[in-house]
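Worked example 3 (structure in, sequence out).
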């Protein structure tokens, strides 16, 4: 009898297991909504019947998409285009993991998290994220219902090891027989330049000195990253940030080959925190991800400038620009979608020349230059207060009198720059309108209002009306800068704009 009961119990458990598997299989065939609730929903309810566990290249560690109570994904976007989804996900990958998952209806969802959210606090949590990370207004929380498969996750850092130097106290790093010491040396102006010295077996093997923009406390960092697949040792990447408000990070690289020994490479000085590193081709070596710095401060202020992506590959002692190579097409396309997502969140930047310049260049890189050029011609700011100028007399632009300065029409100036930087190789395919920019301060809508501007300090309403009358205004900072330049000679400028800015 005891044996019979045991056999019966086992059979019952087998039946239960069978029906559980059957229910799960049937659930896979049900086409459920993409999200737990419409986009306006704040907190999704319920659990998905499907849990996908998977890995593979580019997908990261196995992840259960169905979350327990109190844990939520933040769904920031959805699209039917995988490159677009990855591009948007890259926008939110700073500071936390972002991922792209395929929903049961075939769409791709962009997620960040998971995040712990207390019951009833969903709206407050999302409002905070909108302020801190600029997530879209229709972003919402989900427990994972309807999410079937992860297809991309933000890559882990490629650094094998790293150490930071605070500009004051020497720092060091060991990797096998290699020791790297970070310190500084005196500069000619009394400040200090950061330096990294590599020692093998106690003997000096290489020195990386950065003598650009010395600082009193030249904070710097060394990272070991495999960049050249043909080298027999990870590369030593030495970087130094200027610590200024705008720009720049200087990078030097030490690389080793058995036949040549240690050699040094001067990488480009680029904006912000410098290069990112990503193994795009999955060959075990990272590419250097940067931007084309030439677009900064060219058509807009720093804050209004957008620059196209630039991808480089270390080969021996040469950094090769591989941005246009087919193997990197999808990565560049994702960068384009990332820019377009910014415009989706703030459509007014479609009228910003700084944005349009970088966007057109990026679209050319993916073979969509003509489409972008036509949109630019219908969207650009015809009356900018920033951009390249020319002089009508034989003088350098810096020495040119104001009366002889002419703002170059944006399409013409952009085309010239794109040709110079190698983006446009068929100039005849990019038509520009006839030049229409008048002498600085004359003939534009802004200058036609100049008689009234002489009274701009007399009436706050005048300040408001003239500022908003200006066509193609895209940002309040542009309005303020334009008004300041027009009213600079007016005694009561400060008083008249105090209330306007508030």
């Amino acid at each position: 009898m005891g044996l019979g009961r045991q056999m019966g119990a086992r059979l019952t458990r087998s039946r239960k297991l069978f029906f559980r598997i059957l229910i799960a299989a049937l659930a896979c065939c049900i086409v459920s909504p993409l999200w737990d609730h419409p986009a306006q929903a704040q907190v999704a309810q319920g659990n998905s019947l499907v849990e996908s566990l998977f890995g593979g290249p580019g997908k990261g560690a196995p992840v259960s998409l169905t979350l327990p109570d109190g844990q939520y994904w933040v769904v920031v976007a959805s699209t039917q285009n995988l490159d677009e989804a990855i591009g948007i996900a890259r926008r939110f990958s700073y500071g936390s993991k972002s991922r792209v998952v395929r929903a049961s209806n075939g769409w791709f969802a962009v997620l960040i998290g998971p995040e712990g959210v207390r019951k009833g606090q969903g709206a407050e949590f999302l409002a905070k994220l909108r302020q801190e990370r600029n997530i879209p207004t229709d972003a919402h929380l989900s427990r994972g219902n309807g999410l079937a498969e992860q297809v991309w996750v933000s890559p882990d850092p490629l650094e094998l090891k790293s150490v930071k130097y605070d500009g004051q106290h020497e720092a060091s790093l060991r990797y096998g027989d290699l020791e790297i010491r970070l310190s500084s040396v005196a500069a000619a102006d009394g400040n200090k330049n950061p330096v990294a010295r590599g020692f093998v077996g106690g003997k000096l093997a290489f020195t990386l000195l950065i003598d650009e923009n010395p600082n009193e406390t030249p904070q710097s960092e060394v990272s070991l990253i495999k960049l050249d697949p043909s080298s027999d040792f990870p590369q030593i990447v030495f970087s130094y940030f200027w610590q200024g408000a705008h720009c720049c990070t200087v990078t030097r690289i030490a690389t080793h080959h058995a036949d040549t020994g240690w050699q040094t490479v001067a990488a480009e000085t680029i904006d912000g925190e410098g290069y990112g590193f990503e193994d795009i081709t999955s060959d075990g070596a990272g590419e250097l991800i940067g931007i084309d710095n030439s677009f900064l401060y060219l058509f807009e202020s720093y804050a209004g400038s957008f620059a196209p992506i630039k991808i480089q590959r270390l080969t021996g002692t040469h950094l090769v620009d591989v941005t246009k190579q087919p193997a990197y097409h999808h990565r560049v396309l994702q960068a384009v979608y990332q820019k377009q997502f910014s415009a989706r969140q703030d459509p007014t930047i479609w009228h910003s020349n700084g944005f349009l310049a970088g966007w057109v260049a990026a679209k050319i890189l993916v073979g969509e230059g003509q489409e972008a050029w036509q949109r630019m011609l219908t969207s650009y700011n015809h009356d900018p207060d920033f951009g390249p100028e020319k002089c009508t007399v034989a003088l350098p632009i810096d020495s040119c009198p104001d009366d002889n300065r002419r703002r170059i029409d944006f399409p013409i100036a952009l085309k010239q720059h794109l040709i110079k930087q190698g983006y446009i190789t068929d100039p005849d395919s990019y038509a520009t309108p006839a030049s229409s920019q008048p002498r600085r301060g004359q003939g534009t809508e802004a200058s036609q209002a100049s008689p009234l501007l002489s009274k701009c300090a007399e009436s706050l309403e005048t300040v408001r009306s003239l500022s908003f009358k200006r066509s193609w205004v895209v940002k309040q900072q542009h309005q303020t800068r334009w008004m300041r330049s027009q009213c600079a000679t007016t005694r009561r400028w400060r008083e008249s704009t105090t209330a306007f800015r508030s």
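Notes: The first helix runs from residue 2 to 28. The longest strand covers residues 71-79.
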